[in-house]
Give the backbone structure.
Amino acid sequence: MAEVWTIGRILKWTEQFFAQKGIESPRLDAEVLLGHLLKKERIYLYVHFDEPLEKDELAAFHKMIKQRVSRVPVAYITGEKEFMGLPFKVTPATLVPRPDTEILVQAAIDALRNMHPEEGERLTFADIGTGSGAICLSILHELPEARACTVDISEEARAVAEENAGSLGVQDRVEFFTGDLLAPLAGRTFDAILSNPPYIPTADLAGLQEDVQKYEPRSALDGGTDGLDFYRRLTEEAPALLKRGGFLAVEVGIHQAEEVSALFMVHPDIQSTEIVKDLAGIPRVVMAYKEGYCG
Ligand code: SAM
Ligand code: GLN
């Protein structure tokens, strides 16, 4: 009799196959995909190693394996990614939210918590280039008093972000705009403006990991010749949309923090900047404070 494909056996086989094909985290990817297929937590797989898979489950899993070895990111296969402990829907129109971006979110939450809006006013912030909505929606989830506006150039990304707002239950506190950077927000002001803009220098795109290069939207990654195009525009235009005492916070790529900080300091309304590092000591975020900020 042919050997039965149990959870344990298929995981082991897939791990080896992924490793052979050069997938970076073969075991984790196999577990996330199988967990998603069976609608179970990863821990379930470990306590049910001997459970056999149904024929249709096996067929569906083979499809997933094929996609993964052609380098489709796991999150595009499952259609979801966890960020700040929350589930986000993602599609090929949205960048897959990165753990690095949680540094920006945490820094923004800390700074927003320090601000005390005037009587009758609400804390408001904008998220520019929102993609799946990861930054904006996780902050709204954490700060129940806050309100936000998001902008993305991609109509498809906007639809995904709106869906995520609904499933996270924060849809009443967020407005979605489609357009170019700050243009749709003209005439409004905010306590904070946040962004994880595209920041990869154009020439470096070809050297990115195949998963990213082949499947993630180029318009979410390409930051122009030196990677700083979006920061030039944001540092020039965003301070005018900040309330007195407000702040800007942007994620930055490798070796960009000092230059981005200098760009912010050129603006006459910016009184100071700060570079926030991750636990490994890598600069990840630049904060810029408008006159009157008391942190
Ligand atoms: N905020 C999400 C995150 O951190 O996971 C996505 C960030 S992704 C690096 C940059 C986003 O900016 C993409 O969703 C892209 O569509 C959007 N974008 C690119 N050019 C833009 C523009 N000119 N105006 C507004 N959004 C833009
Ligand atoms: N962190 C992403 C990457 O390394 C880039 C995101 C961005 O350009 N903001 O692929």
About this structure: Residues 7-70 form one domain. The longest strand covers residues 242-251.
